[in-house]
Known about the structure:
The chain is an alpha+beta fold. It is built from 3 helices and 3 strands.
Amino acid sequence: MSAELLTVPEAMAALKISRWTLYNLIRSGELGSVIVGERCRRIPASALDAYVTRLCEEAA
């Protein structure tokens, strides 16, 4: 299995949002993330895709 994991800055750039907004999405459970090691937070690309899909469906 090969899941692409994005860093916080990469996810911020992909969504064009601030660090504060990204962490709020993670805290609220709207955007999934994982902790690698003790401190490294990563966002699976699939979680980003799912979030954007939900936004598009809600907008329709």
